[in-house]
Design goal:
binds NADP nicotinamide-adenine-dinucleotide phosphate, Rossmann fold, alpha/beta, 13 helices, 7 strands, about 290 residues
Length: about 290
């Protein structure tokens, strides 16, 4: 039997599936015959992604929810329970950051990021993991970052939230040892998505002056690690070297280096991602910034 046929009755739930790494992960699951449940805020772009991925012959359900909001994770869980569907794989991909000194950014924005990157991720993990443990079957993929390993001045809340994701995920992976449920944490470095625009980071050296990895490559490394039950994956040699360096240098030194990258660049060539699915993400963000409902 082919892998596609084997996976026909399995469901993967992917948050952040309309852009960047999440979109590429959703494509990989669809190619392998998994049915999909896709979560993001924009109904329109979820629909567009679903129409595209249905061409792989899989069932695609969309759930439009804002994971900045309290209860969004519980609502997603309840909606899926009502559908009578069992989630075999959970991917917590949706995440955002915000560039700027803590003092210069409204508290509301910091709390939204903490809610999306931590509260919703922990809630979705707890809700779906309980069912996986009961069945003794399932897989979870969490999106951390190379900045999980270092403090980042002028990006402090984001980096701290990703440090949380890494610590939480590594602890859970240990708790799950000896079971048939596995948890993988993915630590991407700079990836060519719309992330930097949403984070108001486009003018920084971090965005303008460094190589950006193709989100398809990051997703492939994460997908393969997830499928083989590996607990942690750092995609690409450049990111592996960066994490290796962070592991040996004092936090104070890596924080100084990161702070330099957060300063304005003289260059301004990069204005948007070269990844098509990530380019259209910008429409959602523009509407959000203008206060128009998606
Ligand atoms: N790009 C990088 O350099 C990089 C590096 C390391 C780690 N990461 C991590 O990788 C993950 C994916 O990032 P990406 O670069 O692929 O991002 P992206 O291209 O900006 O895509 C983000 C996805 O999350 C959804 N999303 C954003 N806010 C949401 C909310 N409040 N509620 C529900 N869904 C929301 C977006 O759709 P809607 O806008 O329609 O909601 C979109 O589908 C994130 O966790 C990020 O922190 C990225």
């Amino acid at each position: 039997m082919t892998a596609q046929a084997n996976n026909r009755n399995l469901y993967a739930l992917i948050t952040g599936a309309t852009s960047g790494i999440g979109y590429e992960l959703a494509r990989l699951f669809a190619q392998d015959g998994y049915n999909l449940i896709l979560v993001a805020r924009s109904d329109e772009r979820l629909q567009k992604t679903a129409d595209e991925l249905k061409q792989f012959g899989v069932e695609v359900t969309i759930i439009s929810r804002d994971l900045f909001k309290d209860n969004a994770a519980q609502e997603i869980y309840d909606e899926i329970k009502k559908m009578g569907v069992q989630v075999n794989i959970l991917v917590n991909d949706a995440g955002q950051g915000q560039h700027g000194k803590l003092a210069d950014i409204p508290l509301k924005r910091h709390l939204e990021i903490i809610h999306l990157n931590i509260v919703s991720l922990v809630s979705l993990t707890k809700l779906f993991l309980d069912d996986m443990i009961t069945r003794n079957e399932g897989k979870i993929l969490q999106l951390a970052s190379v900045v999980s390993k270092t403090p980042v001045p002028e990006f402090s809340v984001y980096a701290a939230s990703k440090a949380f994701v890494l610590s939480f995920s590594e602890a859970l992976a240990k708790e799950l040892e000896g079971t048939n449920v596995s948890l993988t944490v993915l630590l991407p470095g700079r990836t060519d998505t719309d992330f930097f625009y949403k984070a108001d980071m486009q003018q920084t050296k971090e965005y303008q002056e460094h190589h950006l990895t193709d989100p398809a490559k990051v997703a492939k490394d994460g997908y393969e690690a997830l499928m083989s039950g590996q607990n942690k994956i750092i995609p690409g040699i450049e990111n592996k070297l960066m994490v290796g360096m962070m592991n040996t240098m004092p936090d104070n030194m890596t924080a100084s280096q990161m702070q330099k990258n957060m300063q304005p660049s003289d260059k301004s060539e990069r204005t948007e991602s070269t990844h098509p699915a990530s380019q259209s993400e910008r429409e959602t963000v523009e509407k959000e910034r203008m206060g128009i409902k998606n």
